[in-house]
């Protein structure tokens, strides 16, 4: 059947819609390619892969998208379908459908600008937490202009295809004929659902190219489907007993002793001789504080002048890595000392109560623990996780109006947040108790707005200003803290939740996980630089070591100062990596393995090392096992 005859049929509207979909997808893909052209490998074969794989995923996406339209066309009687009323109802509905595609394309450009990837888990969160996200978008972009442009473009596209659309509305059809066509069209998405996922067609050698080859709308559906990945189904594995036998060797330290001969039990007694030090611990977890912002690591913008100065007065860890690319991943690793399990962070999963956290350990030691957040802690399930794992909650709802000098979509500015920390600390100190605060900042986040007149970069001018403002706020906080009675007995920690960007040519670019860890306590800890390779899962054991606390542990991490881990675990929600001996081993959820040689923060493809792979499997397989079998609880 000729295309012209198909367009004249009842299903002509679907054909027209599909052609618009493909054209807009081609346009978006091309714009994103031009945007990051320098990061894409050159070559005709490479570009053909991007566009042919892209066409494949576009067609798969269309098959899902048209399901309601196919059902509608199947059941709509001819008499009503060809009526004037139906025609005038169909026009705005078709324009609205085109508008969805245009809106998605515009959104993808902004999303790519921020994250250098197609829609993913973050976009799913944006659909869930609408208040913060919509406020953020309003404050970050000229939305009236964007919406007007979107509506104009959608109406213009419809005007171009209207005469063809009208022909499809005039067509006659028999139900039995529609049933046959609809059955075929409905079988296509069913077949795709069971046989195709985001790894079916991949550009293997370049992550940017692979992202370009995908379709953003498809990626959102994929993220919904894969919010949790069963480890053994998607990744290479070994026998569980072998994995735990290996794990016990990997996490053993000179001051630890396992409490059971059961290989599946990782509980062990950690002993530090001498008196426990009940120092206060104030941990400032800074939004998106990449190591690359620091002068120490080669930055020439001088946007962290106060932190650059502070590192010389602190215990500074220069070879420290984030475990993931989201705030909740950082929280998970810093608190649970557990490698990132594939899918959603444990912070956001069900059955995450009473887990083996730093908070629960310190609470048992008599500490008052607080999770202090600038925004609304229901976002990303943070309040629930911390509230059920040893912490009291202080978020935006606990700030009085006169305690807020400035706020944006994500919460109060860092100065107001840290002023609140001083108040809370004073209150607990008066009770004669030790305290631990897990503080989460927000100012270094789009829309990058903050109080004017604090630094020499105007508010809302970009990331550099937000970083420098956060640097200013932390320095001001430490100066103010020196005036309080509890200062000399307090350990201050400054650490990032993750880097500002995680995109790179490789699936897990090591340099995009490199973050600072600063531990400052002038009356307690001597300044030093520590170059040990470590990651966020090693923080909790290290801080407990500084407190000289003996405790029962299930932590995967090690005290960096006592038993250098010399390895790091990093990952996305699907790809999980193990960095050790200058080799990065990456597990992909198709039971495939990628390997890289790492020199400094640069990496090149390499052959897989069997022992490194077994250690990587061990860390992630056992972490997944313990969580799903409820064996990582504080009190079982």
UniProtKB/TrEMBL annotation:
Q: Name one GO cellular component term.
A: plasma membrane
Give the positions the UniProt entry annotates as the active site.
Answer: 327
Localization terms from the record = Cell membrane
Q: Which residues cross the membrane?
A: 12-35, 55-76, 88-112, 141-161, 175-196
Q: What residues bind substrate, as annotated?
A: 445
| Domain of life of the source | Bacteria
Q: How does it sit in the membrane?
A: Multi-pass membrane protein
Q: What is its main location?
A: membrane
Question: Keyword annotations for this protein?
Answer: Cell membrane, Manganese, Membrane, Metal-binding, Transmembrane, Transmembrane helix
**Binding-site residues for Mn(2+), renumbered to this chain:** 287, 327, 497-498
Key word RNA-binding present in the record?
no
Instruction: Please provide, alphabetically and separated by semicolons, the GO molecular function terms listed in this UniProt record.
Output: metal ion binding
User: Mind telling me which PANTHER family this protein's record contains?
Assistant: LIPOTEICHOIC ACID SYNTHASE (PTHR47371), PHOSPHOGLYCEROL TRANSFERASE I (PTHR47371:SF3)
Name the UniProt record assigns to this protein? Alkaline phosphatase family protein
Q: Which organism is it from?
A: Ancylomarina longa
Per the UniProt record, the lineage of the source organism begins with:
Bacteria, Pseudomonadati, Bacteroidota, Bacteroidia, Marinilabiliales
